[in-house]
Design brief:
single chain, 285 residues, alpha/beta, Rossmann fold, seven-stranded parallel beta sheet, 7 strands, 36% helix, globular
Length: 285
């Protein structure tokens, strides 16, 4: 939209993983704009990283489309509770479960809790992510590399493996990739590497589970204004965030919601193995 904020930004740096309340300008998750049309009526979804940013926007949209939602998050209780308020305001159930998706036992628990709460699992959104910026390879510790893969890749695998046993034909798995999948930012080497892996995992898994009737796709966001940005990037990158794409601004989380709804709904019934780019005009190459 014409009035969406454009850089430069003076939002303060935050400690990881970041919180919405400290952001200036505040991200728009579609709280006042998203209108549902019953596209996910009666469905149940599990969304990782659903406390804020893209995950919150997806949770709000899914609820307004008729879905119950389990929100998985690391430790950001206040943000998660805000997401829960919006989901419940839409008349849907919302279960909050904190914890580390890099832990396989926790991932199995997330799936079990979703099935226990809702009696079914129709949509899995693997959205949680870890990133940090570095200027040189030798600045990336072994622990940092491991954490990035554990959260971004291992957790996606653990959750998918656990969820598939509960998914019926028509179910959908949606993975959050990135423009970094195809155009890696060198300062985000570990993160960009995992995002390329997510895109390949999505394409391969879609073929593997097609006969089960489960669709698998990914959304590839460009620069999106979320707490991940001021909590993981240096101040100069935050100040000019989004300036590099043709639209000259970062996307707002609400601008991703429609893509996830399409891929989760029956309207996307012939879409599988695809990457849906939402990048502000910058091509995926």
């Amino acid at each position: 939209m014409a009035n969406d904020p454009k850089p430069p930004f003076d939002t303060p740096s935050q400690a990881t993983p970041g919180v919405t309340a400290e952001m200036d300008p505040r991200p728009d998750h579609g709280e006042d704009s998203y209108r549902g049309a019953g596209k996910l009526q009666g469905k149940a979804a599990l969304i990782t990283g659903g406390d804020s940013g893209i995950g919150r926007a997806v949770a709000i949209a899914f609820a307004r489309e008729g879905a119950d939602v389990l929100v998985s998050y690391l430790c950001e209780d206040e943000d998660a509770q805000e997401t829960q308020r919006w989901v419940e305001a839409a008349g849907r159930k919302c279960v909050l479960v904190p914890g580390d998706v890099g832990d396989p036992a926790h991932c199995r628990r997330l799936v079990d809790e979703a099935v226990s709460a809702f009696g079914r699992l129709d949509v899995l959104v693997n959205n949680a992510a870890h990133q940090m910026a570095f200027d040189a390879v030798d600045e990336i510790s072994d622990e940092e590399w491991d954490t990035t893969f554990r959260v971004n890749i291992h957790g996606m695998f653990y959750l998918t493996k656990a969820a598939l046993g509960h998914m019926k034909p028509g179910a959908s798995i949606i993975n959050t990739a990135s423009i970094n999948s195809d155009s890696p930012n060198p300062k985000l080497l570990a993160y960009a590497t995992t995002k390329g892996a997510i895109q390949n995992f999505t394409a391969g898994l879609a073929q593997l589970v097609a006969e089960q009737g489960v669709r698998v796709n990914c959304v590839a966001p460009g620069p999106i204004w979320t707490p991940l940005i001021p909590s993981t990037l240096p101040q100069e990158m935050v100040e000019n965030f989004g300036k590099q794409v043709p639209m000259k601004r970062p996307g707002q989380p609400r601008e991703l919601a429609g893509a996830y709804v399409l891929l989760a709904s029956d309207e996307g019934s012939y879409m599988s193995g695809a990457t849906l780019a939402v990048t502000g005009g910058k091509p995926m190459i």
